[in-house]
Amino acid sequence: MFFLKKKIIFFLYFFLAFISGLFFVNNFVYSDQNCSAVSTCGSVSGCENLKCCDYLTCLNNKISDTNGQEKTLSSEITVMDSQINLTEAKIEANKKEILDLTLDIDTATKKISALSDSLNKITGILLNRIVATYEAGSVQPFEMLLSSLNASDLLARLNYLRIAQDHDKRLIYDVQQAKNDYANQKNIFEDKKKKIETLKIQLESYTTQLNQQKVAKQQLLVDVQGSEAEYERLRNQAMAQLAAFSSFAAAHGGASILSNQTVCDDGWSGCYYNQRDSQWGNSALNNTQYTIASDGCLVTSMAMVYTHYSHRSVTPQTINSNSGNFASYFPAYLKYTITADGATSNRVGSIIDSTLSSGDPVVAGVSYDGGPIPDHFVVLISGSSGNYKMNDPFTPNGHNISFTDHYSVGSIREIDKVTF
User: Fold this and answer.
1) Hey, which of 141, 176, 370, 381 would disulfide with 268, CB 3.0 to 4.6 Å?
2) For 71, which DSSP code?
3) CA angle, 132 as apex, 126 and 135 as ends, to 5°?
4) Which residues pair with 415 in a beta bridge?
5) What pTM did the predictor assign?
6) 87-96: string of b/e by CB count within 10 Å (b at 16+)?
């Protein structure tokens, strides 16, 4: 009996130690994979057979290298293709991580459930053991002496009780440690569940980005008609336009930031915006090196026109935040067809007096230096025969002011009516 009880104690002890060990094994098995553990991926020239993390780095390097070259249609397409490949690789890596975490959680959930049951059972056995040993220890020494066969048997029984109680104390500690490990493991996998949700949101973002990149590539090919010469012509035209905007700002004291410029319903049923307003003046023009303050006169003029046609929530920032409003061949160049507040508009050639007489504003491009292209855009809001009122997006508080006080009628290079 003595040796049987001793075997039971050691069985319980090692069983609990085994349970505790499982948690440490699980923590190791289900730790996040590092880059070296990810399978090879990639098919882009120069990046084949690389680990996924190295493949992404390789693609980023290719994009940086190509961006540093002279801009051509070919180099632009190469950059777009690399960006598409990069996004596709991110999507695949994202999907794999979601799958791995899902499998981890599924396996761990089953193991945690089994371990929970085992802990409950072993705790019950341990409680019974503690009660039994301490009941045996409460027997009076004289009674134990009478029930012993001899002195050797008495000493063995007393020694058994001491060993059993020592083991019980150790088992109590091990059970508590196993429960702590169990709780920690549950927390780890709760964190992984949250990470899966974050990855799913990221996956949606990558998918949207991929679709936009493919559309942008297709739009570029349409815009330039697949012609290297047409790409160069349109790009040079756009670069000249932006350079003219910057020159105008520099010639008029620089694009310093202003405050409290917006005025709505100032005699023309719309809002006046200033491109240099602190609300958006420092914003990059479609994520380029240009700013709305120095180069956003056309963006700001179009925002004012939108408010005239009841789209009062539209601001320069609204138009600027939609990359689809800018040319695929030069991302700071505003297209003639844009969308804001769910409404798509077109700038079409028109005649000033007839447009104003119908109650519609005119977006006019002026050349302050007498050159062939507009250096600045304003909104003509009323008047006739050269006597016009305008909203000037550059002049401080430039709402409902005289056009000829600042520019000559002969400086007008472009006349547009906005249609929806």
Assistant:
1) 381
2) P
3) 140
4) 364
5) 0.62
6) bbbbbebbee
- Helices 228-251 and 73-137: crossing angle in degrees, nearest 10, is 80
Instruction: Tell me the C-alpha distance between 248 and 165, whole Å.
Output: 92
Residue 3 class from Cβ within 10 Å (0-12 exposed, 13-18 middle, 19+ buried)? exposed
In a 13 Å sphere around the CA of 113, the CA atoms on its Cβ side amount to 6
Mean pLDDT by 10 residues, the chain (420 residues): 46 48 42 44 58 66 59 83 86 88 77 64 63 52 51 56 64 66 71 86 88 83 87 94 96 96 87 98 96 98 97 97 93 96 97 97 96 97 97 97 97 98
| Enclosing H/E stretch for 194 | helix 151-223
Residue bearing tokens 């923590």: 27
pLDDT tens digit string along 244-299? 999 999 999 999 999 999 999 867 899 999 999 999 999 999 999 999 999 999 99
Q: In what order do the strands lie in the sheet with 337-340?
A: 337-340, 343-349, 412-419, 362-366, 376-384, 387-391, 401-402
One-letter-per-residue 3-state SS of 13-40? HHHHHHHHHHHHHHHHHCCCCCHHHCCE
What is the C-alpha to C-alpha distance for residues 381 and 356, in angstroms, rounded to an integer?
A: 7
For the chain, residues classed under CATH 3.90.70 are: 230-419
**DSSP single-letter state for residue 367:** -
Q: Map residue 252 onto helix, strand or coil.
A: coil
Residue 4 CB: number of other CB atoms within 10 A? 7
Q: Which residues pair with 271 in a beta bridge?
A: 264
pLDDT of residue 90: 87
Q: 78: buried, middle or exposed (CB in 10 Å: 19+, 13-18, 0-12)? A: middle
What is 230-419's CATH number, 1.10.540, 3.90.70, 3.10.350, 2.40.40?
3.90.70
pLDDT digits (tens, 9 = 90+) for 304-345: 999 999 999 999 999 999 999 999 899 999 999 999 999 999
